[in-house]
Predict the structure of ABC transporter ATP-binding protein.
Amino acid sequence: MSALLEFDRLRVEIPTPVGPRPLLRSVSLSVAAGEAVGLVGESGSGKSMTARSVLGMLPGGSVATGAVRFRGVDIGGLDPAGLRRLRSRDVAMVFQDPRASVNPVRTVGDFLTEVLRERGMSRAAAREKAGGILADIGVDRLAHRLKQRPYELSGGMLQRVVIAAALAGEPALILADEPTTALDVTTQEEVVAILDEQRRQRGTALLFISHDLELATAVCDRIAVMYAGEIVEILPAARLHEDARHPYTKALLKARPGSVPPGERLQTVPGVPQSAIDAPAGCVFADRCPVVEPLCRDTIPVLTAGVACHLEVS
Ligand SMILES: Nc1ncnc2c1ncn2[C@@H]1O[C@H](COP(=O)(O)OP(=O)(O)OP(=O)(O)O)[C@@H](O)[C@H]1O
């Protein structure tokens, strides 16, 4: 299966007064056409940075090495027109806060038809197509909705509109960065179900960023576990519980709310989450790992057969 999207030892550094420091240490991951991959890990591990790198949205002054390839083309080598084309045609992004994605004073109809109009579709045809997608995802009173402005919609309804806009452009890939974290639990489930169903029907690939392992497992084919700027394990979502080998993945699984009987104290991953910038020289997880060995402290384990752990590679 050839990759639609491929991160090849992507490293991102920012300048600091004490010299360049990493935000991503080395990210290698591929997403096939139509595949859904979940990127999970604690806050600061670099999930958003990884997704943003696909659209060339890295912090100013940062330097990226390695490569991010879309359909085999290195995104780092695209000119501004190529990057615009990638953003408007091939890859759509859905962020955590839907209100940050929309212009507050424009109507839902204008927001939904923008990409289609840019591609030369007539206003009437674009409205019909946008309305059709809204209907597909269960939005009622279409004519009324198209005239509404973002502040008139609930967070859940607005995130549905943002997902509809992403789908309207018929991208090959959707990057969804914690798309339901800002919503209440029931709405979260509905919005995730819509994203899951619609992208399956259309054969759209998905990079689904979440700190919620259960949610990612429910909608993804594979799960990539990220820690301090590196992918430490990649495995099929259906085998996550049985096949997890990395000590960090195992710790995350134990820290899930459903992993302890009701009333018992929830386990946490011992220690504090680290970013790439303060990760140790060897294995990124060495400082918190319950089975750390001397080798782990100074030698970086390479991601081999889906896991980056010295104890798993002999
Ligand atoms: N604009 C920026 N300039 C400098 N450092 C940044 C910038 N944005 C993020 N970082 C740092 O890069 C690292 C990775 O951040 P990122 O937002 O990708 O993590 P994350 O895993 O998505 O976390 P969260 O779940 O909290 O969103 C963090 O240490 C963060 O502080």
Q: What stands out?
A: The longest strand covers residues 3-14. Residues 14, 23, 41, 43-49, 59, 211, 275, 277 surround adenosine-5'-triphosphate (CB under 6 Å).
